[in-house]
Amino acid sequence: MQQTLIELLDARVSAALAAVGCEGAPAVIAPAGRPEFGDYQANGVMGAAKARKMNPRQLASEVLEKLDLAGIASKVEIAGPGFINITLAPEFLAALAHEAMADAKLGVPQPVSQRVVVDYSSPNLAKEMHVGHLRSTIIGDALARVLRFLGHEVIAQNHVGDWGTQFGMLTAYLIEAEQGGEATLALNDLEDFYRRAKQRFDADEAFATHSREYVVKLQGGDAQVNALWQKFLDVSLHHCEAVYEKLGVGLTRADVRGESAYNDDLPVVVADLKAKGLAVESEGAQVVFLEEFSNKEGEAQAYIVQKQDGGYLYATTDLAAVRYRAATLKADRALYVVDARQGLHFQQMFTVSRKAGYAPQGMQLEHVGFGVMLGEDGKPFKTRTGGTVKLAELLEEAEHRAFALVSEKNANMPESERRAIAAAVGIGAVKYADLSKNRNSDYVFSWDSMLAFEGNTAPYLQYAYTRIAGVFRRVEHFDAAAPIVLEEEAERQLALALVRFSEALHSVARETMPHFLCAYLYELSGQFMRFYEACPVLKSEGALRDSRLRLCRLTADTLKTGLGLLGIGVLEAM
Ligand code: ARG
């Protein structure tokens, strides 16, 4: 199919509206609110009638007369003040399910391809990755996967924090550690390394001076200091990569383009903003005043691009980066998967980039914000002693807990198998718990709820997949090309749910909301369970059995593909 069901119905209802003189009136197609309203409803007639001062029910019946859904719908009705309720024909859904099974992309239509930059993960390399970077990493990864699946060209950008005054301090401390012969050891724990460097910096004036000199040397391109800095970054990136590997996130060194990459561009950007009359001097700093963001007193907000002392800021670097993403990477769309608390920064940065012409009008700029991960006490997630939780340790604990659960259920399974299941379930649970929530809200990190085999969790969906895989282990032969026949309502509902995979993916890509895909997969599993209870599969015979097995097959494929797009693995047995 070239369109999603919603797009198809939209085109048909819009054509009918046009045929009765309501050219351009939106059809407003939505999934039906209740089963008795059919599968979809067209809600646009009321609006069209109002704009034309017509009776909505009268208009609805005129639209209905022109509405051509032959071969698509089995029932079309007017309801309430002028809703049009549409029930799709079983033969039509069967044909779509059949098509989906023959297609590597499961029948998901490919939109016009865009080049999309996704800025995600982007930790600060001075310290170890913490839980705040977990959200960016997995949300960004899921979006990148979905966009790629839809045929877009994704360019991942890991905008790591690898520049700034801390790096003077860290390289100065690295020299000391090396002289003491314990640099490698000390770098095993970056958190600790940073803490000790900071202690030295605060306690020892000579060391602090030294650190500041190093910053200058680093910026001046001094070879020795640069080599040390590189060494530090390398170790820090190794720590990140261990986390990416555990998470199954495909970020590599090639995706790293850190703040330091834009260094030479910063004076160029500021000079350009000045030349364009956008940046002006204010109290010694270079500032862009933004009327769009004026405060209560009506004063334009100041967006600082160069400090009094001549230093550049996070903001300046982001302006250089957006220019690069537009001019060099030629992105049609750029996503910034970053903590919601940076929302104002991005809105202002986007505004400046438009004004300065760094991002052309046609390029979409979106801040994909997310809330904070909370502990079960409802406060920001911390260790028991109030420290930041290291991601590597959190993920280890996830596997550990999943291993205990799996061992409880399958005491006789070989340990290596239990470990493999624990990895998929433990990591899957952590990722899914995050991805299944609306990213804009804060969420409570709870081991018990994410590892539950009931409810909207990874283990539940992984288990649903495994159950279907189990069905196929009991099948010796079936005709994988047999026609799909939808006689029971539960069969028709399952086919409808399967065909709606494309809508879920399209809305994830459009609205950058991975939880739409989670909600879809959960709904699909529910629909499958209802089907499986109502319609015997292995006990049925002949063509009916083949048809039902094919529905099972497509469900398994859709679950596997969908979870895969969230970066979550499935298991043939668990
Ligand atoms: N390093 C920043 C942080 O840890 C995130 C960078 C996000 N990306 C960007 N282009 N600003 O908060």
From TrEMBL:
Q: Which residues form the DALR anticodon binding domain?
A: 461-574
Q: Which residues form a coiled coil?
A: none
Q: What EC number is given for this enzyme?
A: 6.1.1.19
Chief location of this protein within or outside the cell: cytoplasm
Q: Which InterPro entries match?
A: aa-tRNA-synth_I_CS (IPR001412), Arg-tRNA-ligase (IPR001278), Arg-tRNA-synth_N (IPR005148), Arg-tRNA-synth_N_sf (IPR036695), ArgRS_core (IPR035684), DALR_anticod-bd (IPR008909), Rossmann-like_a/b/a_fold (IPR014729), tRNAsynth_Ia_anticodon-bd (IPR009080)
Q: Which family does it belong to?
A: Belongs to the class-I aminoacyl-tRNA synthetase family.
* Assembly, per entry: Monomer.
The protein in question is named: Arginine--tRNA ligase
Which species is this record about? Uliginosibacterium aquaticum
Instruction: Tell me the gene name.
Output: argS
